[in-house]
Amino acid sequence: MVKSGRVTKWLLTVFVGAVSIYLLLPLLMIAFTSIGSGSASKFPPQGFTLEWYANLREQTQFLDAFKNSLIASAGAVLLALVTGTLAAVAIVQYPFPGAGLLRAFFVSPMVMPKITLGIAYLILFSKMHIAGGLFGLVLGEAVIVLPFILTIVGSALANLKPVHREAAADLGASPWWIFFTITLPQLKFAMLLSGSIAFVFTFDQVEAALLLLRQDSYTLPIQLFLYMEKWQDPTIAAVSVVLIVGALALFMIIKLVLRFIPGLEGWLGSRKK
Amino acid sequence: MSRFTEKVVNVYSSGNRKWTTQLLLLLPALLLMGIVYLGGLLIFGRYSFDIYDNGKLVRAWDWSTYRAFLTDPYYWKLIGNTFRIAFKVTAWSLLLAYPLAYCIAGLKKPGWKQFLLLLTFLPLLVSAVVRSYGWQLLLSKQGFMNWVFIHLGMTEEGFNMMNNETGVIIALVHIFLPFMVFPILNVLSQSDASLKAAAHDLGAGSWRTFFTITLPLSARGIASGVQIVFTLCLTAFTTPQLIGGGRVMTLPVFIYQRTLDTNWPMAAVASLFLLVSSVVVSLLVNKGAEWLMFRRSREGGRAHG
What we know:
heterodimer; A: mainly alpha; two-stranded antiparallel sheet; disordered C terminus; B: MetI-like fold; globular
């Protein structure tokens, strides 16, 4: 019995090792290609070079696209945070007939095929004369991430105890004053969490933006997508490595910040003014 | 009191003030969702009744595009393709994700656990375009995978894995795997370890414990993983387009191509079909999981009685 358990465990370890390799392989391959010379799609490369990284300095379109991505994602997340949090307060704290239905409507972009939304935006924004720019994209992406905000902030709101609010109301505070001084500080963590998820999600959005944008307002995924369809050189591998390293660095920084500033979690949690 | 004064009093009563507060709170979201989302979808949906005639759009109220989509075998093949790919990707993800989640949940050393978690969720931080690019490099005719296969003597000139279904499935499983691992890991780490210990004490071997205790307890996680991955797969566009190179036709790729050649009626009909099928699939998976769990609990009750 013990022996069969050990065999199972060993098999499981091998299997998980194989899955780990499968998960890492594309990223390692990109890193490897970015320092190879010659055609990107041929293995093994003819030699090693750093020219693709040196070339990046001339490829300013990727940096511009990165800036566009930052602007569009930040705008969309902020818009969704404001509208979503207000709507969540209305739905959770002041329930009304049809609230469930309205919530379902607000969450429905989650199941909507993004490519469909992309076409719908293209048609609508052309009629409104805002197609092609980042403003339209911000509006469109805000719709797509609203469900994240609404569900996460909504469940945080539902878990809040009404004691503090009732106490403030008994002391004569108006509903708006209560919202800004009591409810909002209690929602800090939920808003930060849903905002980060929404940001990562919009930053990588291809389908909704692909049809919508003009050349000078391409976001990074779109620029990469179109470059990939046209060219086959390792420039894109070099850009990808920069992105992967950036993502890893961000992840580590967040981890370090959370570990070395113990007060931060308390601040994010439930500090009240 | 006359009806008018009653109304005036009502406006200033607290119940009504609550109502205006509510409306003010909801207004920004209603505007955004009403104009951008619903407005856009309705205008796009209206195109489904237009007629596309050799590159020209004719405004009409006509069902011909719907009829063409639902009767032409070409479109049925397209729908079948989309569902087959989604089904295969979901099955493979489940097969790879379950042992991974099981292993992570069972690990006691925090170092290894952190490492495996990072490994599983790191790909989520990397753009799907970049990951598709990685697979393009790996799967191409002269790429790394074929280099390995040729050196292992499995093939003479390499397998064709780009621009076909195999490549799309391999890459899609990679992209959606975290969405399958997470819900399963969630239920596995919440489930009660004492149940497993009890089964063991009562003489059940590790396989029997797994099939009678662990697997049924994780049904809910499996169901939500399947639901998420299947829906994401049905509507996936980036990877099928980049890895399939336009030769693997799924509904989203088809919609994109019809939009490019301004056949908006067909794009609208196909979009509608895609939306309905992804909603129906999530509802079915949900109901299926509930039914399974309900049946189990009934059987459990009978066994005790």
